[in-house]
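Researcher: Let's do a round of design. I'm pasting the structure tokens now; please hold your answer until I've finished.
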């Protein structure tokens, strides 16, 4: 066993961990986007969105 083996193994493990984290964040982002689309389709809006204009007179 050489130092090269341990260094290579650590780089491989670090790469796998980073790729797993990137995949997890990407999949979670897609899930959140889907949830937002479902909520907006059901009529629930974000607080930061402008309210829809009403037919009545403004106060």
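Researcher: That's everything. Go ahead.
Model: Designed sequence:
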């Amino acid at each position: 066993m050489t130092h090269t083996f341990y260094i290579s193994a650590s780089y491989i493990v670090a790469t796998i961990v980073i790729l797993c984290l990137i995949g997890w964040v990407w999949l979670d982002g897609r899930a959140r986007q889907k949830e937002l689309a479902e909520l907006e389709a059901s009529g629930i809006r974000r607080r930061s969105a402008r309210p829809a204009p009403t037919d009545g007179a403004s106060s």
